[in-house]
UniProtKB/TrEMBL annotation:
GO molecular-function term, one example from the UniProt record: adenylate cyclase activity
One biological process term in Gene Ontology: regulation of DNA-templated transcription
UniProt-listed CDD domains: LuxR_C_like
One GO cellular component term noted in the UniProt record for this chain: cytoplasm
Alphabetical keyword list: ATP-binding, Nucleotide-binding
Keyword Nucleotide-binding set for record: yes
Name by which UniProt lists this protein: LuxR family transcriptional regulator
Length: 992
């Protein structure tokens, strides 16, 4: 019949050259992307024979379409035959963690380490072991195919591996771009600086390359151009379709030799089906019955199996002839004693053509065949039992598979299996409840959200549930609703219901109480939240799990900070100290010590959430420290990068609030590519929206801020609203609609006031007071501070409303720990006094506010106060004691700060004021205003790290900047300091 595939690679010389070059430049990672049948595997297979990569071990594994409850399958497949190569290598104890994962390597691995309870620590241990084994096998090429079917842990490990790969390792990844998740694409988003990164996209072949491929398959010098053009058109340039069409045409006798080549016969009448499906099916239909039965059996099995297993599924007493014919025709291939389809598309085409009744029979035989295989794959077995209609056996097998997956830390697969059973199998009520509880716990551990709310609620509808089980189900439902629903009252009720039934689970009860203390539920009075917090605080000492206890205390401290309760400080110190104790010491730690020092997800969450709340309340220094500690803590367990993303969003919020805007926009742009949804996406958009106002585009910025405020309100993120509301109100006033700005935010202001979040909400008081005063004048030019426009009479009720606002906050903040209170109230009172045209007094209030803001530091608000102080001093020029020089200094300080931060809208406004009063910012800066030895905050940060010996690439990675931006900041710092080199910088910074 002739060959089916080309003996040489055709039409991919450039792509192969790029692949070889990248693999030869280890450490490296190369992605080969393309649709099914485009030739990804063939391209990678050609790599092993190239001289440039001679001497490297090739470790090859692939992801399967039918998922097994066994994580890291491609790595296990790639490494299981490496025992001989590792026999002479001395491996560290951590590789003993691979004994259960890769039992074939057990003879060359150290003993199994002492067990640890936390699954994150178990995975971290396995990942370290895998990385070490791969390093011991270097120089090597790790090939992982079909990553679009990868399990969650394989994706996590590859991300972990590429963050610090062995020096002699090259990684080649293949996937279908249209089917791959964002998590898989993110694997190569941020590798180590030393890693060479390549991306090869394979497209369809054109007519010329199709002609060469056809000639190679047909073992000829050439084929006719018209034939090649039609072949290319019918196959859409897909190599797999081209080879299948040629095999079909030869079987039909539709191509003939002509003058040393091949040509079409009756081309216009030839109906060649497009793609892969129809040619494969027609080829199978032409087979003798025995061979057809074998091919159908292989399609149902879906994986390569021994010939005996294939014969058993086919139902043939003697399947040898059928197997031989299928192999001869190239429909099936044999590798390492296992027979299966060459390509999954062909298997799918055959499978779909098998009549349903016969398909069911074949699945039943496949289940029987798979059960007797060594280490029977439970995922395959469950799949066949289900398709065979053997529901009872399917449920049992899926249950076992889910238990195996959970034990191995593959929560995503456990969730998939359990959810499938609960949605499609008729099981007893008692078993349904037990399976639902397991599903709920597995869902907590997986990063990909699954909508299982209905299953949890259905389990709660069962009568006679044991109290503990009912409490556990309510708890799991509440956690599932957390961050996934805008029905905040329902989430609150679920936590409250759980508490009532968790008397014997102080860990879960304290967790629920702390959650109930978070002031998000709209119907719950603040007094109720406070009572829950006090109960959680009393119960916390009874929680034996240190991670849960720290989590609970972190949540309590978070709410205390928002309420201004000074007890937050002691709790925060405890959280910070505990996490710092878990950071690695200088001495060498044994494996158990190291694993126990890995901060777990809940502990890191406590540190991060507390840091975010301290930022909202104005404790910026402590917020920065806690978020940095949380970020370092993610290194031990967050190989997916989700927790790192959240920490960096929190740090971006701190940077915005502190006025450290240099490079912040670039950081936000990088974070946006993480494709993370939910509350943290909204927080990231909030910072971006607050940075967005530019001259001429204020209405667009208002629209973005309105959207963010609406989403924050729906999510119950009451404590994050003041930041965006303050900018939204200022923009409304600037656009000549101060009254509308106050009115459209009144409902959200009432939300945080009802929850007594005065230390957080005080941030908006200056903007609200200015807008109320502006609305009272009816003057669209602005509020109380002189803008150059004619003054307008002020409505008494408008001033009264502004005064009442300021005094209400001053009264409620009395005695609270609220660092924003003093400067924000002085800022607002400056507007009140300016409204009475007491310009000098107003200027003094603004100056005092600016000083208070700088101490926090809150440089953006300080600059606004400097600008407003200058405006008031200029307005007082006709009066006694006016200080033109002081006014100029204040305005220049504001302009310098706005320029440094890139606050274009504010800078434009301040420059207009400067021109109106003859102030020349550029000349002043040349005389020492913002140059000399004064560095921006970002320049200081880059200079400090460079002086400590960090490379530009290392600095860029840590600060989420590009190396080019780091170079710009470093050059500017050296210029401002009058230095010429890093060596001089080290001396200047005291580092050497």
């Amino acid at each position: 019949m002739g060959r089916v595939v080309s003996p040489v690679l055709v039409g991919r010389d450039a792509e192969l050259g790029r692949l070889v070059a990248a693999v030869a430049a280890a450490p490296s990672v190369v992605v080969v992307e393309g649709e099914a049948g485009i030739g990804k595997s063939r391209l990678v297979a050609e790599l092993a024979g190239r001289e440039e990569v001679a001497g490297r071990r090739f470790l090859v594994g692939g992801c399967g379409r039918i998922r097994e409850p066994f994580p890291l399958g491609p790595l296990v497949e790639a490494l299981r035959e490496s025992g001989g190569d590792l026999a002479a290598v001395t491996l560290t104890p951590v590789t003993g963690a691979l004994r259960g994962l890769v039992p074939e390597l057990a003879p060359v691995l150290p003993e199994l380490p002492e067990p640890v309870a936390d699954q994150a620590a178990v995975r971290h241990r396995q990942y370290r072991g895998l990385s070490e084994v791969l390093g011991a096998l270097c120089p090597a090429v790790l090939v992982v195919e079909d990553l679009h079917w990868a399990d969650e842990q394989t994706v996590e490990f590859l991300t972990y591996l590429l963050a610090k790969p062995p020096g002699g390792l090259s990684v080649v990844l293949t996937y279908r771009g249209e089917e791959v998740s964002t998590a898989v694409r993110a694997i190569t988003a941020r590798p180590a600086d030393s890693v060479t990164v390549g991306h090869i996209g394979l497209g369809p072949l054109d007519a010329a390359r199709t002609r060469r491929l056809a000639a190679a398959i047909l073992d000829l010098d050439d084929v006719s151009a018209p034939f090649a053009e039609q072949l290319c058109e019918r196959a859409s340039g897909l190599p797999l379709a081209i080879q299948e069409l040629l095999a079909l045409l030869r079987a039909r006798g539709e191509v003939i030799r002509w003058e040393g080549g091949w040509a079409r016969r009756a081309l216009d009448r030839l109906e060649v089906p497009a793609g892969v499906r129809d040619p494969v099916r027609e080829r199978v239909a032409r087979l003798p019955e025995g061979a057809r039965a074998v091919v159908q059996a292989a399609a149902v099995l879906g994986i390569a199996v021994p010939v005996t297993a294939l014969a058993g599924v086919s139902g043939l007493a003697d399947a040898a002839d059928g197997v031989d014919l299928a192999l001869e025709l190239g429909l099936l291939v044999e590798r390492d004693g296992l027979v299966g389809f060459r390509h999954v598309l062909a298997a799918q085409a055959v499978y779909e053509a098998v009549p349903p009744a016969r398909r069911r029979v074949l699945h039943a035989r496949a289940a029987d065949a798979v059960q007797v295989l060594p280490q029977a794959p439970l995922g395959q077995l469950a799949h066949h039992l289900r398709q065979a209609g053997r529901v009872g056996e399917w449920v049992e097998t899926a249950d076992r598979a889910a238990a195996q997956a959970a034990e191995l830390g593959d929560a995503a697969e456990a969730v998939r299996l359990l959810e499938d059973v609960l949605r499609h199998a008729d099981v007893t009520a008692e078993r349904r409840v037990a399976l639902t509880v397991r599903l709920g716990w597995a869902a907590i551990e997986t990063l990909k959200e699954r909508d299982i709310e209905d299953l949890l609620a259905a389990a709660l509808d069962h009568d006679d549930l044991p109290r503990r089980t009912r409490g556990e189900l309510w708890f799991l439902l509440a956690l599932h609703l957390d961050g996934r629903t805008t029905d905040l009252s329902r989430r609150h009720r679920a936590f409250a219901e759980a508490v009532a039934d968790l008397d014997d689970r102080p860990d879960l009860a304290a967790w629920c109480m702390a959650a109930l203390g978070i002031p998000t539920a709209p119907q719950a009075p603040i007094a109720e939240h406070r009572r829950w917090l006090e109960r959680a605080l009393r119960l916390a000492p009874k929680v034996t799990d240190p991670a849960v206890r720290l989590f609970v205390l972190g949540v309590i401290a978070m709410v205390f900070a928002a309420l201004g309760d000074p007890r937050w400080s002691e709790l925060a110190a405890l959280v910070e100290r505990e996490l710092e104790d878990r950071e690695p010491e200088d001495r060498e730690l044994n494996e158990r010590e190291l694993d126990e020092r890995v901060p777990r997800r809940r502990e890191t969450y406590a540190c991060r959430a507390l840091g975010e709340e301290l930022c909202s309340a104005g404790h910026f220094g402590m917020a920065q420290r806690l978020l940095a500690t949380a970020l370092r803590g993610t290194a031990g367990h967050d190989v997916s990068g989700v927790e790192e993303f959240r920490c960096r969003v929190g740090l971006s919020m701190v940077a915005y609030c502190r006025g450290a805007w240099d490079g912040l926009r670039e950081t936000i742009e990088v974070l946006r590519h993480a494709h993370v949804s939910g509350a943290y996406e909204v927080r990231l958009h909030a910072v971006a929206a607050c940075l967005s106002p530019v001259p001429g585009e204020l209405e667009q910025a208002r629209a973005r801020l309105r959207e963010v405020v609406g989403r924050q309100r729906d999510l119950g993120a009451v404590d994050h609203l003041p930041l965006t509301v303050s900018v939204l109100v200022r923009l409304g006033a600037a656009c000549g609609e101060p009254g509308a700005a106050v009115a459209e935010t009144a409902d959200v202001v009432a939300m945080w006031e009802a929850k007594e979040l005065w230390p957080v909400g005080v941030r908006t008081v200056p903007a609200l007071a200015e807008a109320l005063l502006a609305a009272a004048t009816g003057n669209p030019a602005g509020g109380a501070v002189p803008s150059g426009a004619p003054a307008a009479p002020m409505a008494p009720e408008g001033r009264a409303a502004a005064v009442a606002l300021v005094e209400r906050y001053a009264d409620r903040l009395s005695g609270l720990d609220a660092p924003l209170a003093a400067p924000a109230l002085a800022h607002a009172r400056g507007f009140l006094v300016a409204a009475e045209e007491r310009w000098s007094d107003a200027a003094e209030l603004f100056v005092a506010a600016a000083g208070g803001y700088r101490e926090l530091p809150a440089r953006y608000e300080a600059a606004q106060c400097d600008e407003q102080a200058a405006a008031c001093r200029f307005a007082a020029l006709a009066g006694a004691g006016s200080d033109t020089e002081a006014a100029g200094r204040s305005l220049l300080a504001a302009i310098a700060a706005y320029e440094e931060m890139g606050a274009r809208w504010d800078l434009d406004r301040a420059m207009r004021l400067a021109r109106r009063h003859g102030v020349r910012p550029a000349a002043a800066r040349r005389n020492g205003g913002a140059a000399g030895d004064v560095l921006t905050e970002r320049q200081r940060e880059v200079a400090r790290m460079a002086a400590a010996g960090r490379t530009n690439a290392e600095i860029a990675r840590e600060l989420f900047l590009s190396p080019k931006t780091v170079d710009k900041h470093l050059s500017a710092a050296l210029h401002r300091l009058g230095l010429r080199s890093r060596i001089e910088l080290r001396r200047h910074m005291g580092e050497g």
